[in-house]
Amino acid sequence: MTNLALFASGSGSNYEAIQRYVTEGKIAANIRLVVTDRVDAFVIQRAKKYDIPVLALSPKAFETKEAYEQAILAELKKYDIDWLILAGYMRLIGPVLLGAYADHIVNIHPSLLPSFPGKDAIGQALAHGVKVTGVTVHYVDEGMDTGRIIQQRAVEVVEGDREQTEAAIHAMEHILYPEVLQNLFNS
Ligand code: GRF
Questions:
Q1: Predicted structure pTM score
Q2: For 7-29, how does the pLDDT look when each residue is reduced to its tens digit (9 = 90+)?
Q3: Which atom of ligand 1 is nearest to the CA of 9?
Q4: pLDDT tens for residues 92-133?
Q5: Structural domain boundaries in the chain
Q6: Ligand 1 in contact with 88 (CB < 6 A)?
């Protein structure tokens, strides 16, 4: 079976949505490792619930981004990881990981790319007054949310209500990401 590493920097609700599918046998893959760049990220608590090993490394502890990614890569090799699944990992993937996992890294982004790439995509959408935004799952390249799009879903903006818009987007993410992974890994 395909071995996955989930990368997250924050709450990890997408990680948990995917983990549930995996635990229930609905995605034909194993989550072998959770990787985070924040030693206090809530995703760590979520991973513990499912007995998934966590690699929590602060990039600040390394002299260069290359050294940071080499340290991650060494762990990925130990766990025999085939694919990197980014879910709220707030860092650009550098040449070390891109080179080792070419075409085997995917990400979820809370907008209909190529609109609103980068940070606070939901805030960007609200500021522009769009009526419809959405969710994109895409391959990762060296750019900021520029890789080839795999799947997208639209979500209506709840006007003037960031909280509700955010909740609708997250709910869509938790459906779309597992679905895409099923398509990728369930033959
Ligand atoms: C999600 O909205 C994801 O699209 C974005 O960061 C958020 C992560 O949320 N890249 P969570 O940590 O999965 O709860």
A1: 0.97
A2: 999 999 999 999 999 999 999 99
A3: 12
A4: 999 999 999 999 999 999 999 999 999 999 999 999 999 999
A5: 2-185
A6: yes
Task: Determine the atom of ligand 1 nearest the C-alpha atom of 43.
Answer: 12
Residue type, 141: D
- Considering the domain 2-185 in this protein, what is its CATH number? 3.40.50.170
| Contact (CB, 8 A) for 138 and 147 | yes
Torsion of CA 124, 88, 68, 85, to 10 degrees: -130
* CA pair distance 28, 5, nearest whole angstrom: 14
Pocket probe mutation, ligand 1, options 15, 170, 174, max atoms within 8 Å of Cβ: 170
List the strands of the sheet with 149-156, edge to edge.
Answer: 54-56, 29-36, 2-7, 83-86, 105-109, 132-139, 149-156
**Amino acid (one-letter) located at 143:** G
Q: Is 109 assigned a catalytic role?
A: yes
**Single-letter code of the amino acid located at 9:** S
Strand 132-139 vs strand 149-156: parallel, antiparallel, or unpaired? antiparallel
